[in-house]
Amino acid sequence: MIPVEYHPDALEELADAACYCESLQTGLGKRLHRLVQQIEAEIVEHSETGFIHDHGTRMRLVRKFPYGVIFKSYSDRILIVAVTHLSRKPGYWRRRLSSS
């Protein structure tokens, strides 16, 4: 099975998003985290899942949340580049590709 890695900033984004959602409603942050983990598992099974995005990346939308998981498939791993709020400035995460 191909390993999945998170860019450190993507991990921070997920934690921040889960915290924020949890502050809105108890259990909502855990639900977001669970859905992102489900997307991660689906990416491992089918790395061509989601839609083609910028700079050779793909994106999966998180069901019922305004977030997307941006990832890039390499020969030896899958890198989750960002867990982004969909109304955030587009492309802010692109610099992360050069550091991976």
Strand order of the largest sheet: 1-5-4-3-2
The CATH architecture category equals: 2-Layer Sandwich
Per the principal axes of the C-alpha atoms, what is the gross shape?
Answer: globular
Quickly give the structural class: alpha+beta
Unreliable residue runs: none
Describe, in plain words, how this protein is organized in 3D:
With 100 residues, the chain is α+β, with helices and mostly antiparallel strands. It has a single domain, classed as YaeB-like fold. 39% of the residues lie in helices and 24% in strands. The protein contains three helices and five strands, in the order βααββββα. A five-stranded mixed β-sheet has the order 1-5-4-3-2. A hairpin with a 5-residue loop joins strand 3 and strand 4. Helix 1 packs antiparallel against helix 2. It is globular. The mean pLDDT is 92.
Brief write-up:
With 100 residues, this protein is an alpha+beta fold.
Keywords:
single chain; 100 residues; alpha+beta; YaeB-like fold; 5-stranded mixed sheet; 5 strands; 39% helix; 24% strand; globular
Secondary structure blueprint with pairings:
Blueprint: E1 4-6, H1 8-24, H2 28-45, E2 51-52, E3 58-61, E4 67-73, E5 78-85, H3 95-98
Parallel strand pairs: 1-5
Antiparallel strand pairs: 2-3, 3-4, 4-5
